[in-house]
């Protein structure tokens, strides 16, 4: 999320306790000189290496390091929301481990866990530590979830040692940070209305039981966040209860396929881009009971009937120039199924994923997808963050929207 009311981008620069902390001074200075708003956050151990006054003097704001001694009651989420980029340099083995394992016992680790922005880490440690299997696993996990990593080089280390694990040079780290910051908000969706559906619908059997599916809603929420960051006005039609609403989205809570259908039909009338990321039930119970079915009444016979095909309805009933994106969650050959679905539903883009492949599908942070359009080769993204999927798909949707009418 960008800082409101200003086009200046904010870098939350986290400094952890490694010998390379002194090089972070130059990183702060270079970022500041490039015009970024630099907010330094230090771990307690980082202060053993470099004094906080140095960072305060060279950044846009004083150093913060505590979750508790702040006028802001929730400093970690405030900082995470302000960040266009969270940069950790140097990133110790300790901070990398905490981040990869979801620990958050200080301000740096809590900011990292709360961040929805891009995150760039610059690992720095002795060769033995860098080559340790646990560190390797943590780095691989973070890379798979979309965290960018400036690979360390070979060179002089603390204590006169020499080897792999030396933090990349400040200019390299700043160049990578700049590249990532230029990407932020690159998809210019200002003035456009984006409607996203998210989560799995629930089809009631009786007032306490339902037929559901495993969709977590995370991919839909990632679409909403990226569209908001691009300046769109966003409506999120959601069945999800356990994810925080993206800041600035108009939330429409629904439960069943028919409720979702009604909301999507209404919102689609003014939408420029529609993303049907929800897993809508194909079947519902024909005869929903208004009273709980009693166990003692025997095993009930439940007859299912088809729900309405929302995507096909939207594809066939465009009231204005708009791009429609659908999803195909499959358990085999997602590309071919997505291509078939594209023509059957009248959609512009179908994102196909094999929900059984590792690191993809429901309740994961990453996804592997085929992005399919008519008359084009599919784009394949392997084990990227759901946010990255949203960025690529929305950038393409914008190109289609700009290229000509599809009413
Ligand atoms: C002289 C010295 C240099 C250190 N350099 C590093 C380093 O480069 N990388 C690293 O991961 N840990 C290094 N450590 C160990 C960390 O300081 C230690 O793991 C600390 O708990 C990290 O805390 P933090 O991640 O909260 O900043 C060093 C320790 C000492 C005493």
Mean pLDDT: 90
- Can you tell me the CATH class of the largest domain? Alpha Beta
Straight-line distance between termini:
32 Å
Count of individual helical segments: 13
Bound molecules: flavin mononucleotide
| E-strand count | 19
- Low-confidence stretches are 1-6
Rounded Rg: 24 Å
| Spatial order of strands in the largest sheet | 12-11-8-13-16-17-18-19
| Count of separate structural domains | 2
**What percentage of the residues does DSSP assign to strands (E)?**
15-25%
Shape: elongated
User: What is the CATH superfamily label of the largest domain?
Assistant: CoaB-like
Which range best describes the helical content: under 10%, 10-25%, 25-40%, 40-55%, 55-70% or over 70%? 25-40%
The CATH topology of the largest domain is given as Rossmann fold
Backbone structural class: alpha/beta
CATH architectural type of the largest domain: 3-Layer(aba) Sandwich
> What kind of sheet is the major sheet?
8 strands, mixed
List keywords for this structure.
Rossmann fold; single chain; 407 residues; five-stranded parallel sheet; disordered N terminus; 2 domains; 33% helix; alpha/beta; 19 strands; binds flavin mononucleotide
């Amino acid at each position: 999320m960008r800082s409101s009311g200003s086009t200046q981008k904010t870098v939350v620069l986290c400094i952890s306790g490694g010998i390379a902390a002194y090089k972070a001074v130059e990183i702060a200075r270079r970022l500041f000189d490039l015009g970024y708003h630099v907010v330094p956050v230090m771990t307690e151990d980082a202060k053993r290496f470099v004094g906080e006054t140095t960072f305060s003097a060279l950044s846009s704001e004083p150093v913060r390091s505590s979750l508790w001694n702040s006028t802001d009651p929730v400093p970690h989420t405030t900082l995470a929301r302000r960040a266009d980029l969270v940069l950790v340099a140097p990133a110790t083995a300790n901070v990398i481990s905490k981040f990869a394992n979801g620990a958050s016992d200080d301000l740096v680790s809590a900011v990292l866990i709360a961040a929805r922005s891009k995150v760039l880490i610059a690992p720095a440690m002795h060769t033995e530590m860098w080559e340790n299997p646990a560190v390797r696993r943590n780095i691989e996990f973070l890379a798979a979830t979309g965290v960018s990593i400036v690979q360390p080089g070979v060179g002089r280390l603390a204590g006169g040692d020499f080897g792999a694990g030396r933090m990349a040079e400040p200019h390299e780290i700043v160049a990578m940070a700049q590249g990532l910051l230029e990407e932020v908000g690159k998809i210019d969706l200002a003035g456009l209305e984006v409607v996203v559906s998210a989560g799995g619908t629930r089809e009631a059997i009786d007032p306490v039981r339902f037929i559901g599916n495993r969709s977590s809603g995370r991919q839909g929420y990632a679409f909403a966040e990226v569209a908001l960051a691009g300046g769109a006005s966003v409506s999120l039609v959601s069945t999800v209860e356990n994810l925080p609403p993206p800041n600035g989205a108009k939330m429409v809570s629904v439960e069943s396929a028919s409720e979702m259908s009604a909301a999507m039909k209404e919102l689609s009338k003014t939408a420029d881009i529609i993303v049907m990321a929800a897993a809508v039930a194909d079947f519902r119970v024909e005869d929903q009971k208004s009273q709980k079915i009693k166990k003692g009444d025997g095993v009930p016979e439940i007859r299912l009937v088809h729900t309405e095909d929302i995507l096909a309805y939207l594809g066939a009933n465009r009231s204005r120039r708009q791009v429609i994106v659908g999803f195909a969650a499959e358990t085999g050959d997602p590309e071919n199924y997505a291509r078939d679905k594209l023509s059957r539903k009248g959609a512009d883009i179908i994102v196909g994923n094999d929900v059984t492949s590792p690191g993809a599908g429901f309740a994961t942070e990453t996804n592997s997808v085929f992005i399919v359009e008519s008359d084009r080769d599919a784009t394949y993204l392997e084990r990227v963050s759901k946010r990255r999927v949203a960025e690529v798909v929305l950038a393409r949707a914008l190109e289609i929207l700009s290229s000509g009418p599809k009413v």
